[in-house]
Structure formats: structure tokens, C-alpha cells
Recover the amino acids of this structure.
């Protein structure tokens, strides 16, 4: 299945009031996945403060979408993918981007996403779950993305 | 003989146990697959160098507190729904801070320059240490004026380095203004 996780997840709707009573249930989920989420954001931004901001916003959105994340196995994959996308959105249009961010910004979104997730330490199975593809296809996406990244670097080095 | 797919060659670098034994055996005997694997490994290493971030320490306790604070804010002031903005506020704030810092630094430097110039203009050409004078000495000077009837008696002995003084006595203050840094002042 190659459905886009963005469209499958859909845009988050801001709540009129926050589901406060679900916070205690959400805390273990937060503590279990915060390091991975902030690392994904850090892989994109390269800025610890910006990565923490992205991670916080991702969990706010996750709490609105999954008030009881333990009851939904989809939540971890969703926050991994959302962290990558949010980080890529954060660097888009930045004027002071470094070479990594420039290269990521020029790649197709799915290529950049698979690169970020893999180099943040996620396994093939986790990436497959986040991107709604098979684990075997992750290898194909990763190879193509790394080849494209190498070309971007070579172009940047010549210019 | 079927060659190993690129996906398997790439995964073999990260998760070798996830690749079949037949694929690994073929890789060991096929020059074409070895060349492809070497190219894939080179690209993967370059991507690792480019993307693998430095060490990042995460404080989940502090992050949880910040998240709770974020959630405590009213919905309209909380973070917008995803996709998230590009963090313009942080960048703009930092740019504003940098701009303000530059302006403030410029004003400060200009002020320092002006102060230095004024300090040079009004700087004393020579600083003379004050000479302590006792009340008895002043009384003696006053008595000397009464005895000699001179308008300005001259001290017989001056500290080293003090030139010829111009001494004036007036009531209620007695002031001695030497030409080279000698003064006596009494106030009642």
C-alpha cells in the first residue's frame, strides 16, 4: 500500500477545548516516544531548540488526534512521520539553511522523509509503518533518496 | 542467475539478517552486484555523514512540563494545526534581536567614541596630589598676615615639586592657590 500518510492521517482539527483528563494516559506515550520524535526533528533542522519546538507541537497535535494513544497502534507511526514533515516544513524557505537543509529541501518530499526517518535511527519496519509501504520498498526508496542526495551534494560542490 | 535487487543491497547494509542467504551468497559471487553494492554503500555513507546529527541530549521531564504549559494555553493561542508553520516567529524574533543588537552596539560604540573624545578634551594636563594642611597651620598663616601686614605671606617651606605659590587669605575662607598645584582651603 502506497497511500500517502499525510492524506491518510488528514489535517488535524484544533479542538474547541482540550481533553485534559486524557493527559495521564498520554504521559507514558510521550515519554516513550519523545526522544525519537525530537531526534527526527533534529535530523532535519540541526537546531536543538527548533527540534524541541517541533517535537512539542507534534505531541500537541498527536494528543488532539489520539487522546488514548495506547489504544491505537497507529499513533507512533503517525508522530514519526509528522515529526519528519513538520521539520521539513520548518526548514522550507529558510534563508540561512546549511547544506544539509538545502539538499533536503530540494529532494522530493517522500525521499527527504525516508532519509530523515532512517538517519534518525528508525528501523525499516518502523519506516514502513510510518510511510505506509512495505519494508522491502523502504530499501528502494532509501537507495534512490541517497543517490539523489549525493547528486545534490555534487551539484552544490560544483557551484 | 537473478541479481540481488537494489532494495536488498541497501537493506543489507543496515539489517543484514533481513536479507536471504541466497542473496548474500549471490553477492559474494557476482561482480555486478558487488559493484552495485559498493556504489550503494558509498551513497549511504555520504548520506550518513550529511544527515546524522551531532549528539542530542533530550530531557523528557522538561519537555513534558513544557508540553503541559502549552496545553494549558487557550486553544486559539496554542500551536496551530499541522502542517506546522516554518517557525517564522523564532526566526523573526532572532532576526529582530540581531538587528536590535547591531543598532544598540552601534549606538554604544558611537557613545563610547564621543565620551573618549570629550575625555581627551577635558582631561587635566597634570594631576597633582593634594597637600594636607592642618587647622593650626592655617591659624599660623592668619597670624602671620596680622603680624607682617602683608596681603599674602609666603610660606618658607613648600613640599618638593611645588613651585612659587600665590597665596591669598580671605575670611571666612582661606585659600592658597599656588601656580603649580598647591592649594589650601578652609571652610567654616
Amino acid at each position: 500500500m502506497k497511500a500517502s500518510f499525510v492524506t491518510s492521517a488528514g489535517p488535524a482539527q484544533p479542538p474547541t477545548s482540550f481533553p485534559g483528563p486524557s493527559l495521564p494516559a498520554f504521559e507514558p506515550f510521550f515519554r516513550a516516544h519523545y526522544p525519537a520524535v525530537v531526534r527526527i526533528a533534529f535530523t532535519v533542522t540541526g537546531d536543538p531548540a527548533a527540534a524541541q519546538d517541533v517535537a512539542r507541537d507534534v505531541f500537541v497535535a498527536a494528543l488532539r488526534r489520539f487522546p488514548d494513544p495506547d489504544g491505537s497502534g497507529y499513533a507512533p507511526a503517525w508522530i514519526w512521520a509528522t515529526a519528519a514533515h513538520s521539520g521539513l516544513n520548518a526548514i522550507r524557505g529558510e534563508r540561512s539553511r546549511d547544506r544539509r537543509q538545502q539538499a533536503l529541501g530540494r529532494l522530493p518530499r517522500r525521499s527527504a522523509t525516508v532519509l530523515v526517518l532512517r538517519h534518525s535511527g528508525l528501523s525499516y519496519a518502523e519506516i514502513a509503518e510510518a510511510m505506509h509501504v512495505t519494508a522491502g520498498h523502504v530499501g528502494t526508496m532509501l537507495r534512490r533518496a541517497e543517490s539523489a542526495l549525493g547528486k545534490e551534494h555534487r551539484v552544490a560542490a560544483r557551484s | 542467475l537473478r541479481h540481488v535487487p537494489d532494495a536488498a543491497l541497501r537493506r543489507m547494509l543496515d539489517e543484514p539478517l533481513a536479507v536471504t542467504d541466497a542473496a548474500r551468497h549471490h553477492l559474494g559471487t557476482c561482480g555486478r552486484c558487488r559493484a552495485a553494492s559498493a556504489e550503494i554503500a558509498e551513497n549511504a555513507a555520504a548520506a550518513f555523514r550529511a544527515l546524522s546529527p551531532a549528539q542530542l541530549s533530550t530531557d523528557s521531564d522538561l519537555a513534558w512540563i513544557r508540553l503541559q504549559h502549552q496545553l494549558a494555553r487557550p486553544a486559539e493561542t496554542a500551536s496551530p494545526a499541522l502542517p506546522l508553520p516554518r517557525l517564522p516567529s523564532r526566526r523573526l524574533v532572532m532576526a529582530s534581536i540581531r538587528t536590535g543588537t547591531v543598532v544598540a552596539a552601534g549606538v554604544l560604540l558611537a557613545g563610547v567614541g564621543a565620551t573618549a573624545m570629550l575625555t581627551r578634551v577635558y582631561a587635566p594636563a597634570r594631576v597633582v596630589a593634594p597637600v594636607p594642611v592642618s587647622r593650626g597651620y592655617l591659624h599660623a598663616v592668619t597670624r602671620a598676615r596680622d603680624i607682617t601686614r602683608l596681603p599674602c605671606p609666603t610660606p618658607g617651606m613648600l613640599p618638593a615639586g611645588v613651585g612659587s605659590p600665590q597665596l591669598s587669605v580671605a575670611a571666612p575662607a582661606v585659600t592658597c592657590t599656588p601656580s603649580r598645584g598647591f592649594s589650601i582651603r578652609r571652610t567654616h
Q: What stands out?
A: Residues 83-90, 173-179 of chain B have pLDDT under 50 and may be disordered.
